[in-house]
Amino acid sequence: xxxxxxxxxxxxxxxxxxxxxxxxxxxxxxxxxxxxxxxxxxxxxxxxxxxxxxxxxxxxxxxxxxxxxxxxxxxxxxxxxxxxxxxxxxxxxxxxxxxxxxxxxxxxxxxxxxxxxxxxxxxxxxxxxxxxxxxxxxxxxxxxxxxxxxxxxxxxxxxxxxxxxxxxxxxxxxxxxxxxxxxxxxxxxxxxxxxxxxxxxxxxxxxxxxxxxxxxxxxxxxxxxxxxxxxxxxxxxxxxxxxxxxxxxxxxxxxxxxxxxxxxxxxxxxxxxxxxxxxxxxxxxxxxxxxxxxxxxx
Length: 298
Description:
single chain, 298 residues, mainly alpha, Farnesyl Diphosphate Synthase, 2 strands, 70% helix
């Protein structure tokens, strides 16, 4: 597909990942059926699939095979789905709407949702461990390690802990960025690096450029989320609009104001493009994804 075919490419990747996940998730006919139903409910039939798109786009830079990128993308999306299930629980954000449908604990029950999230996380690591994603076994171990760090206390889980502790507080911009570098940005960074590592080895400078790109895109994603939370409604977003503001959570719009938050997102977009300047046309999908992330309406 040509560069002008980004919408078609994004739909193709999203559809491919939906099929892969449907095949990899345990079917409902296998016991425990209710748990498997909840896992499939949480992971299938919704979402923008931005993280799998980042995996595939980074894989284009390193010439990775589609088969490897499918597994890496599925693992990333399973972690993302688990994080949403847990974030929505009454002990966390206590939300009732996700991707335009009742949250997992509302559709099933709190205990089943908790277990579904646990099982989705375990399946993600199972996929990374039992499939060949790199020619060098040592590199594959490094990929699993960076993925684990992105998911754990120094990544996504740690960011969520900071987020919960920050309710009702006013954070500085560096503190807010630190929170979202972990909560949102860590898995986005892992998506890009996993995709890149699935292909031919890249030098340190190239990996550094991709990492810088991913950090900028990860922050921009959250800034735009905060803007949309202020400007869009629940039907458009597929989740409860204005929830963070009502809960007293620190956001970029609360700290900077709406206009400055939008300006900041634009600055992050420009920096992400700058990080990709040394790359040729193989990085065009990454460039287009950065544009999409900042300019999306949901």
